[in-house]
Write a structure and sequence with these properties.
The complex is a heterodimer of chains A (about 325) and B (about 775). Chain A has twelve helices and ten strands. With about 325 residues, chain A is of the alpha/beta class. The chains are: A alpha/beta (about 325), B alpha+beta (about 775). Chain B: InterPro entries: Bact_TGase-like, Papain-like_cys_pep_sf, TgpA_N, Transglutaminase-like.
Chain lengths: ~325, ~775
Amino acid sequence: MTGIDSTGLEEEEPAHDSGAIEALPVEEAASLCAAVERNVAEVIVGNEDVIRSVVTTMLARGHVLIEDVPGVGKTMLTRAIARSIDCEFSRVQFTPDLLPSDITGVNVFNQQTRDFEFQPGPVFGNVVLADEINRAPPKAQSALLEAMEESQVTVDGETRPLPTPFTVIATQNAVEPNQTYELPLAELDRFMTKLSLGYPDPEEETTLLGRAAAHHPIEELDPVADRRDVLRARETVAETTVQEPVREYAARLAAYTRDHAEIGVSPRGTIALVRAAMAHAVAEGRGYVTPEDVQLVAPETLAHRISSGAAGHRDTPGAELVADALSTVPVE
Amino acid sequence: MTGRGSATNSASEALAESHPDTVRNRIKADWLAGLSPFRLLALGCALVLIGAYVKILRDLTLIVGGTEQLTTIVLVALGAGLVAAPLLSERVAVPIGGVAAVAGLLLYFSVAGIDPGMLVPMLDTLLADFLTLADGMELMRVMEAQTLAIAYAPAPAFLTWYLALRGRYGAAVVPAGLALVFLVLTGDAMMTPTLVGALAGTGVVAFGELARRDAGFESVDVLTVVLVTMIVCSLFVPFVPGGSNGSSLIHGIGAGTLEGSIAGSPDRSAIGGSVELSPEVRFTIESEVPSYWRTAVYNRFTGDEWVRTGEMRPYEEPLDPPPASGTSRVTQTVTVESPVEVMPTAAAPLSVEGDMAAYTEVSDQGQLYPSVTLREDDRYTVESAIVDPSSRSLARAGTDYPDSIERRYLQQPDSQSGAFSDRVDAVVEGAKTPFEKAQLIESHLRNSKSYSLSVDRPDGDAASAFLLEMDEGYCVHFATTMVMMLREEGIPARYATGYTEGQQVRSDSWVVRGTDAHAWPEVYFPEVGWVTFEPTPAGERDDVHQDRVDQARQNGNPNVDTDESEPDDPDPDEQDPGSDDPDEQDPGADDPDEQDPANESPPSEPDTNSSDTGTTTGGGGSGGDSGGSIPVPSRDQLILGGLIAVGLAAAAHRTGVDRALVRTARLYWQRPTGDPTTDAERAFRRLEILLGRRYRSRRPAESPRAYLAALDSEAALDDRVYDVAIARERATYGSGVDPAAATDARKAVDELVRRYGPIGGRDE
């Protein structure tokens, strides 16, 4: 039952030329984002905001958690993005019996060479879809989360770096909460953004049906960028200017959540907020972050990090509190 | 003092009964610890308030004597308040203050010769006295002014200081405030001390309240507004009766005329500067002999004005004749030619005949005054006893003056200098009798000073200034100086004003004009009475005055003559303007430089100063000379302007207008700083203010872009708005904005403000 879909993981080495990667000019990075978004929009109807967020999270070196009901196109979105940027796509279907090695890979004895050979798991991809992550027990979850945090996996004492770019897009099923292993807050914190697709409205669904009924549109999707472009765009994001007033604003937003909730936004969350804002600025074609960028990315980057303390009541207070913070904390 | 001790004991017992220990401890704690800035200010104001009324009394004692005693007793009262504040309860201290006040009054009455034991039955008289005082009779005109001032001063000072120290600020204002109000009602208070006192009283209450509430300094703005309003209003509404300097001189006859300054007011007469002469006819007097027509007599000199002390009484019966044996009776019939408030008579008047008697009042000095304004064609007849003693009888008269004369007519202001006394001694050296002394003084003044109507008002003591410093003056200066010189020598003398005999039109008829207004000294000789002296150089005076009449005739002034007084044969020279330069006619217009002994100008120097028409100059003396200079605001104007500015600023602060003004000013005025970041940020701030006025302000948590987007959805914004926003965004959040973009942003906002701004903007 290990649903590992390893679509060609032969090229083992990640390009170790990251030091030499030159940042794209902001305008080009922005047009790259726009091209990817347009491309993805060919297969995903509506949800432009979510597409933008997934793209910018990738550029900000973050990971995405999508929580939704089944069948709204989570997998489709992930695959479309991977395809658009001509990157390795892999997928792990999380089930209650999933083992960590099912994610990271195993050493297999090769009869011919009479040696152990590493058989990389699905985590060795550029865009990894971790489907229904809350269906697997914590042990399996943590294997993925460690890989996310450290961009490397250790199998049998041997540490292997993951390819770059490496982005996990995890999905979480909002239905059947009794049969799931809810991700603890500490692990949620490792996702830069938490998104939700939602159902399409009737109009969008009509369009969707028109496309999907004939054939599988994802097969016809052509890449609009390559892996190198993505890496260069990431550099662009890293070089984006964040001035003192914006940093202050982000810090004040975080402080507000800490003042008004049992557990507020962690410093990691604040860093994620600013990085997401940087990526957003680049996607807008700007070499600097404005408070609007912070405001736009704040709900998706902060809400899931906030807890009122009582288990099971995470989401609502988080979203509300972020909205409060945005309408209260003054902008300089 | 034993009474006070036992009172303290009983008070502390009372305290111990109700609140054992705590009350006294609390009072002590307040007293020691409560020295907040506001408390210090409140106490300072209390001292100023005390100082205000004491200052008025002190000015009084400077004239009548007793300054040192007054200062001492006020200081003692303040010391007593300081000691009493932590020791005595109010139930003890306030009665002590009351007793002190009553004791002071008793002292006054005893000195004034009123038996204190008689006071109770005389209560209504006493009350009437006080009502008279409060009705505007000045303390200065009360005979025992010195005693009253000293008796009056300490109790309010003690009470106010005591209550202020105990933190009872509201009550503290009452004693000193009442003292001040009383002085205002009597008319002794001048504008400045009254105003200062009122401000200080307000300050005591306000600062006291602030101290009690532990308020912050920003709450002072209301107080500032109140105080400044008080000051400014007081300048436009003189609330002190007769308090604004100089206005008391105006009594029907214009201020600034010689006549106005010497014959205008029945109560007081000021020593002024330059004056003009009115050539109009005032009276026609039918009399067998010419005389100086006296209209007023003054006995008390303050250094710059003459005051008549004592009460007026209605004329009921003929007055006592002078003690001289050989007096001649003269009956005069006076016809009034223009409205006046004086009643000229030859000295010394004895009786009034006819209806006028009912409208006549008699002063303490034996002078007649009308109780109504006399109108044209009013007539009255007076009989006078004219004292015309021989030189021998005067020389024999001796110095045996009656007490009542010595009490009234020897007063000298404290301000008189030692140099004055030395000079007087030098002038009268060798003279033995008062008559010789008077003659010496008279001739000294006549010979050493010349006559001029255009002089600066003397600084300080007018008599000293005229004797020691000035070279010319007019009758007022001569007469005043002679009176003070005589008093310096212990000879009773007084200051009389009125008119000279005038123009004789028939053998028994005299036309008296404004130009005849005059002032002269009268000297008392035992067994003779008051004798008129004339220190003013007569010839010079007559020339000046006659010139003025002739000039007025020439100008066609209709009131210069009566039917009879016109010259039968007009001097052809005077009809010819070409041959008669008016400036040359006018010795009064001498160059002011002549007053300076170091600069002897030749008399032929062209005269630029037509000061015959110059009005009283308040001491500046620049008269008509300052024609070409740029008007510079005076110090007072600057202070007033500053005050108003402070008040407005405080009011603005209170109402928030200042912030609105600053915002508006910022909207219109942006100076390039040379730093593009700052320029762009300021430009955007202006834009925000503009948009805020036109639509709504940006909410604090709203990002600028979201704000603009929200506005744009309501009303399409000018594109330049976005340019400015982006320039500012680059400057603030990006790595900077280039100078050209910053300048563009600034100019764009300039244009937007011009177009949509609150001033001159057009709404669409």
